């Protein structure tokens, strides 16, 4: 079974047993979480996109994972203006256990 679920404003295509990185969600390693905002489900040739009554159950594998460093550099030529900001986005590593 396949599902498209909305997690923290982003859409993910998941199957049971999938492991993925999602934007940071509250919880500790080993906790189970449920996502009820399912947009589409598919099993074989049967696709349901309106009135979906499914939930995606997952387990948190790692509660805090930092992504690559992103640099935002601003500069105005001939003015001597340079500004450098950087950040590392925080993610949560989850494993999908079931789609019900």
Structure characterization notes:
It contains no helices and 8 strands. The termini are close together. It has one domain (2-99). The strands form 2 sheets. The protein has a 4-stranded antiparallel sheet with strand order 2-1-5-6, with no helix packed on it. A 4-stranded antiparallel sheet has the order 3-8-7-4, with no helix packed on it. The chain is elongated. The mean pLDDT is 94. Strand 5 (38-43) and strand 6 form a beta hairpin. The relative contact order is 0.31. It is mainly β. 0% of the residues lie in helices and 70% in strands. The chain has strands spanning 2-7, 10-15, 19-23, 32-35, 38-43, 46-48, 56-76, 81-99.
Compile the SSE list and pairings.
Layout: E1 2-7, E2 10-15, E3 19-23, E4 32-35, E5 38-43, E6 46-48, E7 56-76, E8 81-99
Low-pLDDT windows of residues: none
Total helix count? 0
Q: Roughly how much helix do the residues carry, as a percent range?
A: under 10%
User: Strand order across the biggest sheet?
Assistant: 2-1-5-6
Query: What fraction of residues sit in β-strands?
Result: over 45%
Which sequence of SSEs, written as H and E, runs from N to C? Answer: EEEEEEEE
Q: Supply the number of structural domains.
A: 1
Summarize the structure.
The protein has 100 residues and is mainly β.
Characteristic terms for this protein:
100 residues; mainly beta; four-stranded antiparallel sheet; elongated
